[in-house]
């Protein structure tokens, strides 16, 4: 039973995603972080910026279609959350501006981005649904199992898509090869007939 618990913990760590990152943002500069996330996945983020007199930082979270999922002008500290509608590339951008284009100190940005089962607050769920500790653990295992099934289903769908693409490419290459051989055969036949007529016209052959 201990081995099973250890295995579940390790598997949960591997499947869940916690991205805590810290970087410096210079005045009048923009930095973005991109990540691919599966469909129907809860994403949460906690950010905090150091003080920088006179500077304003704009935070935006967008998808690959430029849909704004979260926007904050004058961001200093806060949270955001959204659920993905489809598998996509998501981008978190921090852009700081200094009025008049002046110089200032770098801002230290701390971003803690979570998605999957790690983004869920099971304490809040337990309070809202009045769950017992054992029921909370069962809910975690249920969500973990669903995450595993979804990952396998996604990998299977990708494998089928890649196989279909491979078969389609193979068919196209085969038809193109047959077409090329037909063109070469037709060209060779035309050259033979043309040369035959040419030599006959010059009376070099009968």
UniProtKB/TrEMBL annotation:
Q: How does it sit in the membrane?
A: Single-pass type I membrane protein
What keywords sit in the KW lines? Membrane, Signal, Transmembrane, Transmembrane helix
Where is this chain's protein located in or outside the cell?
Membrane
Q: Which GO terms describe its cellular component?
A: membrane
SMART domains referenced in this protein's UniProt entry, alphabetically: EMP24_GP25L (SM01190)
Give the residue spans that cross the bilayer. Answer: 173-195
> Which residue positions does the secretion signal occupy?
1-20
Is this entry keyworded Mitochondrion?
Answer: no
GOLD domain location, by residue?
Answer: 30-140
Q: Which domain of life is it from?
A: Eukaryota
The record's listing under InterPro entries reads: Emp24-like, GOLD_dom
The family this protein is said to belong to: Belongs to the EMP24/GP25L family.
Return the protein name: GOLD domain-containing protein
From the broadest rank down, the organism's phylogenetic lineage runs: Eukaryota, Metazoa, Spiralia, Lophotrochozoa, Mollusca
